[in-house]
Design brief:
The chain is of the alpha+beta class and about 160 residues long. Helices cover about 20% and strands about 40% of the residues. It is built from 3 helices and 6 strands. It has a 6-stranded antiparallel β-sheet. The chain is globular. It catalyses: a long-chain fatty acyl-CoA + H2O = a long-chain fatty acid + CoA + H(+); a medium-chain fatty acyl-CoA + H2O = a medium-chain fatty acid + CoA + H(+); a fatty acyl-CoA + H2O = a fatty acid + CoA + H(+).
Length: about 160
């Protein structure tokens, strides 16, 4: 079992990783749409928070599973991206998520931690919690694989690209 999980022992390839990660996150219209914010960025670790909004609930009033997946995917992607060189971007290769309880809270928190960082692929474990009345309910867990796309700066697409 890796000994560096959660210890912050990962070293970013770019000293300016936090500003680069926050800038990239802030350019995501999807995160703005659901009200998500990047709460924590450390080497190999990221937390995304989101307030409960009626617009993102399902028919029973819980935060929709697809929205839970959105914040988990972003947290995992940016945990990996925090370790990438400045001239790279990140793309999700795949993720698998288990929904363990309804996402019933006033605030959602997705926490992602790199478990293995490779040259091209980075593996990230994530957990999602729903906070209600000061209590955190563990509602989802999963594993993601992220790709480091070297030589492709993390910049908005243009009409020609």
């Amino acid at each position: 079992m890796p000994t560096n999980i959660g210890t912050g022992e990962f070293k970013p390839a770019d000293a300016g990783f936090e500003a680069r990660v926050r800038d990239s996150f802030n350019r995501q219209p999807a995160m703005h749409l659901i009200g998500a914010v990047l709460a924590t960025v450390k080497p190999g670790l990221c937390e995304v928070e989101m307030p409960r909004k009626p617009d993102v609930t399902q028919q029973h009033g819980f935060v929709h599973g697809g929205i839970v997946g959105m914040i988990a995917d972003s947290a995992a992607g940016y945990a990996a991206y925090s370790l990438f060189p400045a001239d790279a971007t990140v793309l999700t290769v795949e993720y698998k998520m288990n929904l363990m309880a309804p996402a019933d809270g006033d605030r959602m928190l997705a926490r992602a931690q790199v478990t293995r960082h490779g040259r091209t692929l980075t593996i990230v474990a994530f957990d999602v919690f729903a906070e209600k009345s000061g209590k955190m309910l563990h509602c989802a867990t999963g594993l993601a694989t992220m790709m480091c796309m070297l030589g492709r700066p993390d910049a908005p697409r243009t009409a020609a690209s």
